[in-house]
Structure prediction request, 775 residues.
Amino acid sequence: MAWQRKILRVDLTAGTCTQEALNMEWAKAYLGQRGLATKYFVEEVAPSVEPLSPANKLIFATGPLTGTMASTGGRYSVITKGPLTGAIACSNSGGYWGAELKMAGWDMIIFEGRAATPVYLHLENDTATLHDASDLWGKTTWETEPALRKKHQDSQLKISSIGRAGENGVLYAAIINDLHRAAGRSGVGAVMGSKNLKAIAVRGTLGVAGIKDPKAFMKATAAAKKVLADNAVTGEGLPKFGTQVLMNVINESGAMPTRNAQDIQFDGAKDISAEAMHAPRVTDGKANLVTNQACFGCTIACGRISKIDQTHYTVVNKPEYWGASGGLEYEAAWALGSANGVNDLEALTFANFLCNEDGFDPISFGATVGAVMELYEMGVLTKEQLGIEAPFGSAKALTYFAGLTARGEGFGQEIGLGSKRLTAKYGHPDLSMTVKGQEFPAYDPRGIQGMGLTYATSNRGACHLRSYTVASEILGIPIKTDPLATEGKAGLVKAFQDATAVFDSAGICVFTSFAWTLVDVAPQLEAACEGDWSLDNLNVVGERIWNMERQFNNAAGFTAKDDSLPKRLLTEAAKTGPAKGLVAGLSKMLPEYYSERGWDTEGRPTAATVERLGL
Amino acid sequence: MMKSLHIEAAKCTGCLQCEMACSFENYGVFNPAKSRIKVFEFHDTGTKVPYTCTQCAEAWCLKACPVDAITKDKHTGAMMVNEATCVGCKVCTIACPFGTINYVADTGKVQKCDLCEGSPACADACPTGAITYIDADSTGIDRMRSWAAKLENQTVGHAD
Prediction:
């Protein structure tokens, strides 16, 4: 079967590494990665746990399809209680690290406790060793990766690490692997930092064997790859333009939160779009985009590799930033750009490089800068406090703040706490564009109503990757629904949430769902894994995972009141575009959603629901 | 028709489907560490390059082998390692200028690309056409065609 059936438990307090058998009963009910690791987490950790305390745990988990020939089968997730939100956190990353962990013979690693001094974990197949990381503390992820390869004389080591943001307690610090792939959201990097864990360096040469029916698996994965190749989004749009294919589309749909969601369309969108990344620059005649790149096993290859214009103010005399590295994805381009009214593509690329280099989430960072700029324009924050003039549209302020946040200096320390804490401190909590403390991403719920319900009910705080109804409401996948209507969105959101939980638990990328449904996933899982992975059961597994996460959050103190949206989205109507005059119609959707979910009016799964899902 | 593996690095995305296909074909396991084709990523330039044995017409490995364990397959032209004969002396790995024949500690033998008996799994798995298996005598035909197209356009341009 496609699980390695083995987990590694690392007690950082005691400094021990112990091997355990994977709980196969749980694997058959929760699949892997997000679902299975969350099951371990909720069984072992009290919901009231302080996220940055030694009692919190941090789980790195692969799925059954990770490290196989299933397209996009290279994912891993990091599960913990998030410090930004206080809710369950689950951040998913691609690159090559997840597959390497699986190849080393492990399904997951559970970290517990806290090391007295900085350490890193070195894994060479079965051999797990904790090493002193004092000399790496204070280094960026871009310095840490080559340093560990040199130290272990192993050029093929794959490394997942935190930069200075994770060390300094930036509440939306990310964990970075392969230089520019990120378990980006909810502050999983801050938890890693709080444990004094700098990095996990892995070399796996055992591979993934034991596929249940190899012949059927090769047939199923080949058929599924053809579906991706033949689809306009996964076969053409994403490889050529990346997720940035959305920039102009969403802007024209009138659903682009702009200048801290004061506006819903950004006049500079075209300057920071996929098309702009392809266009030759006036300065040097070269395009910002160098090439696309796949993660492990991915036949879509949406990743962006960019080079910054060497004459741009951000990198003059800084040759360390002249090479190619991870370029702008749509969410980053929006958060660093539209959310702040900044249309300087090179400045956004530079800020994105810093987010990767020191490990922090560009969505929460960019959206927090948006709130700072609004407070600056209101006169609440001043140049003296900030260290720079910071009106909307200032690329210089954006890149200055990115540097401060990366290094934990000056006002960067306040930006690193996220917009909820920052706006509350300065007396304007309504200017925080967050749900459950996490900044919402690049789709305005006034223009795409389903995303309002998505943000309000997401188990990890506002997020597009828990139910991407944009696919249906804008792109017509799998069916077209009206983005301005609230009718029917409760059922749509539930369906997307449950299906996404399965994708995230299987070891594959949710971007496949532009072309695949669970109908395409089921045969791949059935051929790879023992157990019942029929379409019907997968729907139940997804719903079970969703409710398990919800129960943890409820027990952690969240209530129906937290299933809300920023006041601005509920009371200030869109000024332009197709959604002009509309606010987010959350109150029309939420009661229906609770009912569809089998929850009571307080948002708690009823006894019947708990029973039905075997929770 | 004799065929060759043909690699166009510019089309490679670094997905490693080829490495998994190779290890699965030869060992029944998804394991890039056992792959005979390797993809190299050059981060600073964003370049990804698949690399494997070119099946030299006059093969250094074949000539260096002291026990004649390497022979040329007359159907595919691939240099084949006879594992029963190979003594694991590694002289071929020293002789090969390209590093594409390697010792495997688990088996005590060397391994290299054998073109999968004329149906290379890597080419079959490559989603972008970066690895193809084509007429050995015309591996440059597509490149010639693309340049020819440019030349024709230029000629038209001059005529104006």
Summary: Residues 141-159 of chain B form the longest helix (19 residues). Helices of chain B lie at 17-27, 60-64, 91-95, 121-125, 141-159.
